[in-house]
Amino acid sequence: MMTDEVLTMDEVAKSFRRKTVLDHCSFAIERGSVTALVGSNGAGKSTLMSLAVGLLTPDSGNIRVLGEAVGQRGIAPGLSYLTQHKPLYPHFTVAEMLRFGRNTNAHWDDAYAAELVSAAGIAVSARVKSLSPGHRTRVALALALGRRPEVLLLDEPLADLDPVARRAVARTLMRDAAENGTTIVLSSHVLSELVDVADRLLLLRDGRIRLDGELDTITAEHYLLVGSTDAEPTVDNGTIISDVSGSSAAVFVVHGTRPETARPGWTVEDATVDDVVLAHLGTEVAA
Ligand SMILES: Nc1ncnc2c1ncn2[C@@H]1O[C@H](COP(=O)(O)OP(=O)(O)OP(=O)(O)O)[C@@H](O)[C@H]1O
Fold first, then answer.
1. Could you tell me which residue, 278 or 87, shows the higher pLDDT?
2. Domain ABC transporter spans what residues (predicted)?
3. Which residue lies with its CA nearest to atom 26 of ligand 1?
4. Residue 44 CA: which ligand 1 atom is closest?
5. Sorting pLDDT into bands at 50, 70 and 90, what band is 284?
6. Stretch 177-188: mean pLDDT
């Protein structure tokens, strides 16, 4: 099967003054995939997205979106970006925001944008400044999807939402991906928020992509070693990523093929995706 990569970074580096945020950052995102971009606070998720849409310029490396090098000519027509701060005009009504979307985009689906606003229970006569943060997110999402993008980048889209709204937005995104083949990248510092929506994971740590692949595959490539002793475990298959021990048991997340049996004093268990992500976010990087 021919791969169709819609967003790629190759050895991208970006620093602010002396702080290196991205360094040797490489990945490729395929058309139609839904990717969770996960990293701790300050890991560089927003920086990565700003680079992808051309709001920032990399110090080195290559970035391509929809077959073109990312330039300074404004956001590519096939791309939508929902920033963390959801810039809407506070004095506009929702109807005026939708009209703004219509007037500023060559490709614009008015019916779809209006349907998304109405599904969120938001009156089009309401002023943006009077909306709750969750409703603002829903309006910003309607504006982003009204462009009918091929690639949609969402920076922490679910952070301001209550659980019901979170589920509604997750459904909207999944439906958009399934029906229109939209490629979606959404960031969070907690994967559990995204695990129902995303099929792939990019884990950003120390400026690089540390995990990249299908969520199920990544999970299956790890296992837990659980023991009741203080002793360091001996691992026959793979490498210990981290110690997630609780008070009563020693628990180690191991990257490798799950062995049939463990050594005396230890048992082997399946890792969850949360175990794996937390382990990788928490590990000190080996030199
Ligand atoms: N314009 C800027 N000037 C200087 N430093 C910046 C700038 N933008 C980001 N940084 C720094 O770069 C680092 C990465 O920031 P970024 O916002 O990309 O992280 P993030 O993963 O999105 O974090 P969060 O989850 O907190 O939103 C942070 O240390 C931040 O302070």
1. 278
2. 7-231
3. 41
4. 18
5. very low
6. 94
Which helix (H) or strand (E) segment holds residue 5: the answer is strand 5-16
Quick check: 285 pLDDT over 60?
A: no
pLDDT (tens digit, 9 = 90+) per residue, 21-46?
999 999 999 999 999 999 998 999 99
Contact in structure between 171 and 196 (CB atoms under 8 Å): no
Best mutation site among 9, 16, 56 for ligand 1 pocket (most ligand atoms within 8 Å of CB): 16
Residue nearest to atom 6 of ligand 1 (CA): 16
Residues with CB under 6 A from ligand 1: 16, 19, 21, 39, 41-47, 84, 189
Q: Is the dihedral of CA 135, 79, 59, 204 positive or negative?
A: positive
Residue 253 bridge partners (DSSP): 224, 242
Q: How far is the CA of 155 from the centre of ligand 1 (A)?
A: 12
Report how far residue 24's alpha carbon sits from residue 59's, in angstroms, rounded to the nearest whole number: 11
Average the pLDDT over 250-263 and give the result.
Answer: 87
pTM, full prediction: 0.90
User: What's the rounded Cα separation, in Å, for the pair 195 and 216?
Assistant: 10
Does residue 274 contact residue 251 with C-beta atoms inside 8 Å? no
The pair phi, psi for residue 250, each rounded to 5°, is -95, 125
Residue 256 CA to ligand 1 centre (angstroms): 33
Hey, what are 49's tokens?
């997205």
Q: How many CB atoms neighbour CB 42 within 10 A?
A: 11
ipTM, 2 dp: 0.95
Please tell me whether residue 286 adopts helix, strand or coil conformation. coil
Q: How far is the CA of 42 from the centre of ligand 1 (A)?
A: 5
E-state strands within 44-165: 60-65, 68-69, 79-82, 151-154
